Amino acid sequence: MRNILLVIQREYMVRVKKKSFLIMTILAPVLFVGGYALVIWMAISSVDSKTVQVVDESGLFTDEFKDSESLKFSYVKGSIDSAKAQFKDSQANALVYIPANVIASPKSVRIYAPKNVSMELKSEIEKVIEKQIENIKLSEAGITHKILEDSRVNVSSETISLSEEGEKTSSSGAATIIGGICAFLIYMSVFIYGTQVMRGVTEEKTSRIVEVIISSVKPYQLMMGKIIGVALVGLTQFVLWIFLTVSLTALATTVLSSKMPKDSQQIQQEMGKMQKGMPASNMPGGNVDNPVAEVLGAVNSLNIPLIIGCFLFYYLGGYLFYSALFGAVGAAVDNDADTQQFMLPITLPIIFSFVFAQFVLRDPDGNLAFWTSMIPFTSPIIMMVRIPFGVPAWQIALSMVLLVLGFIGTIWIASRIYRVGILMYGKKVTYKELAKWIFYKV
């Protein structure tokens, strides 16, 4: 046990002290949060206030064009010809001409500008005109705009789980997102850190350092120490990523909120007051949802402690299960090029697990979901997809037991290959040869 702890300490400290580890640990959250912050900042800062002149010969659109943070409207009296002559000397960005027969001929509307206007500006102008023409035609038909609005119904159902504990609000959307994220993190970690184990073993073998290490440490102890050491590196990196991402997101939100247009902040504040002061069903315009409250409610409907606990177990279990196989491959070959022939049987179950996860999300309780969440090769990813939807305790326990037994089996097979292959050089290994190594007596 002491030798395993020494190997774990060595593997952990060597990797954590590398510049590449420090750079990637800091750079990944910075790039992730910085990318989103840059997009939002550019969207906010790139919006310049534009002035639009309106010539309304119909007289139907008086005060229909409302000023906003990015658009300022002004009405011009007189003919379109005089308005165009004045427009050339003005600082306005566009001139909108609405003819007298706009109701009969909506396509006769014209937008004049020194150069092409943006699609956003064109769409905003057309939206106001279309809405007013629609209201006028509805009024002529005896249908008021209020009647039309009242006829529109937005159905938003609430899912409720019935269990022995009673009724409990649930959210299929939140379960799908959380399950997908957990499965993707396990999928990526198995690939990233499992290959690190394989490459570390290959490097030590090719540099002949392992010949010195084996003289004082048993091959099994060396392999276990290397696997657990890399696992701790992965956990450290995950924890730092989460901490840095949350901190940077909070900082970016604070900075960007001060850059938001004032009218947007006022609208959000007013909406917050309204939603605190009255039920959603009593709000003007029907049922107005609070997206933030909806997201928080959806997350709170899940069993977060169970999800976190299972994620840590299946993250470690999946990593240990596959890392043993990756370590065996690294010990069996002499260079990275030779690893490709043995990588396929190991990576295929991982890839298939992620593919099966797409179908499991549609039917979390089906036969495919059950059996793939029991098989150790696929259970780390599939079970994490199912858990947010609710899985019986006996299925989770059985899956965990089978994964532990699977890890014990793979570590036994890998150690048998490792003890022979780690000191073998210059020989092309085949699957038949690997099978013989398992039963060698050394």
TrEMBL record:
Membrane topology: Multi-pass membrane protein
Keywords: Cell membrane, Membrane, Transmembrane, Transmembrane helix
Statement: the UniProt record of this protein carries the keyword Zinc-finger: no
Cell compartments where the protein resides: Cell membrane
Record carries keyword Cell membrane: yes
InterPro entries to which the protein is assigned, alphabetical: ABC-2_transporter_component, ABC2_TM
One Pfam family it belongs to: ABC2_membrane_3
ABC-2 type transporter transmembrane domain boundaries: 19-415
Segments crossing the lipid bilayer: 21-44, 174-197, 238-256, 302-322, 342-361, 393-414
Domain of life: Bacteria
Residue stretches in coiled coil: none
Record-level Gene Ontology MF annotations: ABC-type transporter activity
Main subcellular location: membrane
Gene Ontology CC annotation, any one: plasma membrane
PANTHER family: MEMBRANE COMPONENT OF ABC TRANSPORTER YHHJ-RELATED (PTHR30294), MULTIDRUG ABC TRANSPORTER PERMEASE YBHS-RELATED (PTHR30294:SF29)
Protein name per UniProt: ABC-2 type transport system permease protein
